[in-house]
Amino acid sequence: MSTPNPSITFLHEAEDLLVQIEEIILEIHSQDAPSEPVNQLFRAFHTIKGSGAMFGFDAVAEFTHHVESVLDKVREGEIPFSDELSELVLASKDQIKKLLDVSQGGDPVEPGSSERIIAALSEFSKGSAGAPPPVAAASAHRSPAPASGHQQFSIRFKPNPEMMAFGTNPVSLLNELRGLGECTVSANHQDVPTLADIVRDRCYLSWDIQLFTTAGINAIRDVFIFAEDGSQIDIEAVGAPEPASADSSANISAVPKGQEKTLTPAKAEPAAKDSSSSKKASSNNSLVRVPSDKLDRLVTLVGELVMNQSRLSQVASRVDLADVTAPVEEIERLVSELRDNVLGIRMTPIGMAFNRLKRLVHDLSGELGKQIDLITEGAETELDKTVLDQIGDPLVHLIRNSVDHGIESADDRELHGKQRRGRIRLAAAHVGSHVVITIEDDGRGLDPDKIRAKAISKNLIAPDAQLSEKEIFNLIFLPGFSTAAQVTSVSGRGVGMDVVKRQIDSLRGTVSLASQLGGGTTTTLTLPLTLAIIDGLLVEIGSDQFIVPMALVTENVELHKADRARNNSRNAVAVRGDLIPYVRLRSLFQVSEGEPDIEKIVIAQQGEQRVGLVVDRVLGSHQTVIQSIGRFYREVEIVSGATIMGDGRVALILDVAGLVHSVRHGAAHGTHAANQHSPEETARR
Amino acid sequence: MNSLVATQYITFKIGDELFAIDVVSVREVLELSLITRIPDAPAHLRGMVNVRGEAIPVVDLRAKFGLPPIPDSVHTRIVVLEIEVEGQRSVLGGIADSVHEVIDFEADMISPPPRFATRWKGDLIKGVARRGEELIIILSTDAVFSGNDVEEIGAAVAQTGSLDGAGSH
Question: pLDDT tens, A26-82?
């Protein structure tokens, strides 16, 4: 295994920390005494500063230093964490991100922008000079900093052997300690192996440090902040008298990581206060960072394994030997368990996407002068990372729509008897093999008359078309339709709901709208859990095999030749009272040989509607490893992918939505009327 | 023409014409196996074929070059290529009437693309090599398989005859 490039590691780490910072700031808003969040903020910035300086990201380190100083004052209770300051910290966070991007070849930052923020930050620092420390009492126990005089600490530091590979240099930590006060360092080298056994980049040394300093134990801990993982760090106050000792040990125990050993029993109070964050941190500790392409490779390999296993099962059932059958069944069980586990690894909580949206709502509502609360539910709902990566943009677009077009200004809301603060609810939940994401606002809702008028003016529907409310709402998904009377800077630049629809379609998902004029709009996205392996129904037409995604299939019925002849013109079948239109794939695919007397109709749910697919035979369910059919066939809308069957042949996965569209489109050629009567189908493009 | 110095090429025949492609982009040459037809696809896209667990698209070069179809024979081969399409690595197969040999061409054996070829966007033809009386058209695989207007190469094939005649006199 190759050692990761430390500066890349830093960039990844910084990325995570910035996300964390944003999350904390947005949460602080709702807290009265944000002492622990501020501590977390401080630590995050401190880590960025420290590691940044170490890897030559000097601009970043320099800038971050100013933010850190202000936060330190907040932490010490000298200045309050006001709304203005939190905005400023948020802006700083963005600036750091920009500075980091520059180092990766991004656009250069606007000249003077860093300086402006720094100036604003130092205003805050200065502002504190005369002010009394308002929070001092509350946070006294976590800022012991005995200004009273010197204190001696005995520190044992045994770094994580991999520390240097993670981008931390122990020497600079020691130097940082020296900066705190008089310092005696002795190195223990008994663990250093013989030269032949030495692994480059591994740290074999440990150090005993005697530090005589005026700085508190907090300051010492801060030095080791980004060296905690896997390291042994014992900090002991030597011969320290009076309350400082009890305080400092309590503080140590409050450190979430748990690597620091406490000599005196922990005080209950701070430990309890930290319990939530300690839980979070310890779960973080056991995480392993893996590049996603390695994971993708693993999923591919499991896919191949599933394929070969089904081939093996087929052979085993043919030879029918008891000696073979048992182990093959065992392998089948193991492979299916392995598949579920590997796909499970790629499952990522949707909360990651939600965080980005919190910031979006925060910024947009400020920009538009609206007061909006974003309430998220089900952030822990997991779905495949490949799906998650692709729903970011559609979600941003939908949330923007809600903020921009949905929620009214505070005054308007009051006029209509609503609360001044608007509300957007963003919820995710598992429903069967799908994830359902709901975006619900309590804004002004969609006006069917306006939409209708707009659609008529854009020639999307005929002036006399009879449409249900639902059908009218679906007009929004047509390409070229945009509800905003004038395009504001907030709503996307010419990107309409049709793009959202297309992106969701490409993920094999669906999107639907419900709205009440004056009461708000609800958008519902339904997405598959994974794009890698699905349950499919294997069907046959002539000698070709196809897969219909099982999630869509509701039932199968028979179609007799005589029945078909009787209602030839209708191409619809009655299933328990409902008339369901069907498509004969045989004629669509121009297969002529071997027409059976009794065909099967696979009834599939496509959006709100059910549609029948007429096939020769239904062969049964099939674990389908999805392979892309590549860009060569991207014009082909009736097929969404391919899979390899047990016997080695390739079967195609049918795209039911595309199929329905293709049939409608083909039938509607030149007949404008068909288009007018089924805007819903047109919207399904 | 430095890029063409002593490069290895695989030669294959479509109709009576001999073509060559850089061996670097060729992953393997396979006998014809079961190709799954894709309904609704353009004629030159024959379908998908399983190459050791990977479903890859197969392009019928004959149809792609605008030549009339002939029945598959025992000589028909699938040339599996690894190429860049729009910046992404793609694996695909090309069906040739027959595949012949791997040969070295040195730079002086290759003439620049004839003038009629340079008119096309994408530079489908990298050059033309001579071996005795034989004329071998060296294709640029990336251009051939990513471009949509490849049918024009059929016109080129039709014209090489006259070029051949002009060259040997």
Answer: 877 655 556 778 888 888 888 888 888 777 788 888 888 888 888 888 877 778 888
- pLDDT on residue B148: 52
Rounded to 10 deg, the angle between the A292-319 and A385-401 helix axes is 120
Task: Show Cβ contacts of residue A72 under 8 Å, excluding neighbours closer than 6 positions.
Answer: A42
The two beta strands, A151-158 and A206-213, are antiparallel
Interface test with A, best of B36, B44, B91 (most A CBs within 10 A): B36
The number of angstroms, rounded, from the C-alpha of A497 to the middle of its chain's C-alpha atoms is 21
Q: How many CB atoms lie within 10 A of CB A185?
A: 15
Q: Which of B81, B66, B69 is nearest to B12 (CA)?
A: B81
Q: CB contact, 8 Å: A674 with chain B? A: no
d(CA B69, CA B60): 9
Token pair listed for A132: 């009394």
A364-528 to CATH, choices 3.20.14.10, 3.30.565.10, 3.40.50.2000, 3.30.930.10:
3.30.565.10
Chain B residues touching A642 at Cβ < 8 A: 36, 48, 55
Alpha carbon separation from A262 to A67, A237, A251, A259, A335 (Å, rounded): 31, 11, 9, 9, 47
Question: Are A633 and B57 inside 8 Å of each other by CB?
Answer: yes
ipTM of this complex: 0.77
Classified by CATH at the fold level, domain A533-669 comes out as OB fold (Dihydrolipoamide Acetyltransferase, E2P) (2.40.50)
SS3 for A240-252 is: CCHHHHHHHHHHH
Find out whether A534 and A528 touch, Cβ atoms under 8 Å: yes
The domain in which residue B77 lies consists of 2-168
Count the alpha carbons within 13 Å of A333 in the hemisphere toward its beta carbon.
Answer: 6
Query: Using CB atoms, which residue from A588, A650, A652 is nearest to B49?
Result: A650
Judged by DSSP in three states, A368 sits in helix
CATH number (3.40.50.880, 2.40.50.140, 3.40.430.10, 1.20.120.160) of A6-140 reads 1.20.120.160
Chain B residues lying within 8 Å of A636, measured CB to CB? 38-41
pLDDT tens by residue, A233-244: 888 877 644 444
Separation of alpha carbons A472 and A463, rounded Å: 13
| DSSP state string for A54-94 | HTT-HHHHHHHHHHHHHHHHHHTTSS---HHHHHHHHHHHH
SS3 labels along A604-622: EEECCEEEEEEECEEEEEE
Q: Which two tokens stand for residue A589?
A: 């695919």
User: Where residue B149 sits, what CATH number does that domain have?
Assistant: 2.40.50.180
Is A582 strand, coil or helix?
strand
Structure tokens at A274: 């930290």
Assigned token pair, A165: 């590979």
The owner of tokens 């069980």 is A333
3-state secondary structure of A498: helix
Which tens digit of pLDDT belongs to each residue from A430-440? Answer: 876 678 999 99
- Taking all residues of chain A, what is their mean pLDDT, rounded to a whole number? 77
Name the token pair of A549: 């995604």
Over residues A590-621, the pLDDT tens digits come to: 888 888 889 999 999 876 788 999 999 998 88
Asked if B141 contacts B79 with a C-beta cutoff of 8 angstroms, the reply is no
Separation CA A500–CA A291 (nearest Å): 28
What pLDDT score does B20 carry?
A: 92
- Could you give the number of structural domains in chain B? 1
How confident is the model over B80-108, as a mean pLDDT?
84
Residue A307 contacts B where some CB pair is shorter than 8 Å: yes
Sheet (strand A533-541) strand order: A617-625, A533-541, A544-549, A650-654, A639-644
CATH fold label, A144-269: Alpha-Beta Plaits (3.30.70)
Could you give the C-alpha distances from A352 to A19, A37, A183, A284, A504, in angstroms and in order? Answer: 9, 19, 43, 15, 18
Residue A212 and residue A240 in contact, taking contact as beta carbons nearer than 8 Å: no
